[in-house]
Predict the 3D structure of the following.
Amino acid sequence: MLLAGAFDKYYNIMNFAPQGGQYTEVQSFVYLVANAFVVIAVGISVAMLAFGFLQIATSSGDPKSVEKAQRALLWGAVGLLVSLLAFVLKTVLLNAAGVSGVN
């Protein structure tokens, strides 16, 4: 039952049920997967940014370490941008298709 309670909380957090609307189980699953992808991608991007900042802080001015940290920061920022654009694109496409109440 503990797993079922955790899933219910996750279900509500991911917000794939519309306000006042009804979806099939397949549509709900697709929205869950899309939202989960965005959440996981944002988490990985933020971790990459934190790793890059930590590398810069501990590089002691070593040019090779600073370059490696800058690459980590760049790809962390790119990952964050791509995942946020994916969320926006999903929302825009669903609204254009007439699906209301989905975040």
User: Anything to note?
Assistant: Helices lie at 2-14, 25-57, 63-96. The mean pLDDT is 77.
